[in-house]
Amino acid sequence: MESIRVLLAAASPLVRYALAGALSNWPRAEIVGEATSLEEVIGMANEQRADIILLHLDSETVDWPAVRKVVTRVPDSKLIVVAEDEDDVGMLSALAIGARGYSLRRHVWPGDLRSAITAVARGHLWLCPASTERAVARLLRQEDLSREHRASSLLLTEREMAVLNAITEGISYGEIAGRLYLSRNTIKTYMRRIMMKLSARTRQEAVVKAVSLGILPDWHRPIYREEELLAVSAGS
Question: What is the third-level CATH fold of 4-135?
Fold first, then answer.
């Protein structure tokens, strides 16, 4: 059986030693080099014709554009990221730029590492069990939010959405009434209905829930500042 050429890449010599040790008794893997920086990875991977790049990253200091450059400059080598810490954003970033495998360093056991290298070398995507659980949990949370969004957005009428959008601008009921050619009392009635449908106790909470459910786009969140929320609460 043809061996899999593996390039180890980590700034820490202890991490490189640990990764090499995990593969030491596996004849299927041939370690073709050890890189200490992302710059070295590109040259060594091309020179040694590595099938797999096993790259250790610290999520707090990682330079994702530089990692992306590795993926694009060495297209024949498949990237497996070994992350130092649990980080959903880091996992998604790694997969988004083209990594084919992702694991946490503390979960890198010889059997798991061999499974990862074998799967990725065959063209599959591989996540360690802990990362798989986190990814599935994240997808389930998103699905729950999406389901709530669909249900809530169907409940809000077009006019209620217009009022809710106006509220995010921090303007008063009187100004909203003038914009929508309605009375101030009618605007307040619409707002009460919105709060009831979103199970919100205040207008502020209604906006926050609408953003979290995806009814309002997330760019409303920074626009709707605390002082504006207070202004709306007291607005006439």
Answer: Rossmann fold (3.40.50)
Alpha-carbon span 84 to 124, nearest angstrom: 23
Q: Yes or no: say if 108 and 56 are a contact pair by the CB < 8 Å rule.
A: no
pTM: 0.58
| Residue type, position 132, single letter | T
Other beta carbons within 10 angstroms of residue 66's beta carbon come to 13
Pair type for strands 126-127 and 4-9: unpaired
Mean pLDDT per 10-residue segment, the chain (236 residues): 91 92 91 93 93 89 86 93 83 86 84 91 89 70 58 71 87 91 93 87 84 67 41 42
Torsion, Cα 151 157 159 161, to 10 degrees, reads 10
d(CA 4, CA 80): 13
Q: Options 3.40.50.10490, 1.10.10.10, 3.90.1150.10, 3.30.360.10; which CATH number does 156-234 get?
A: 1.10.10.10
* Angle of CA points 181, 182, 185, to nearest 5°: 155
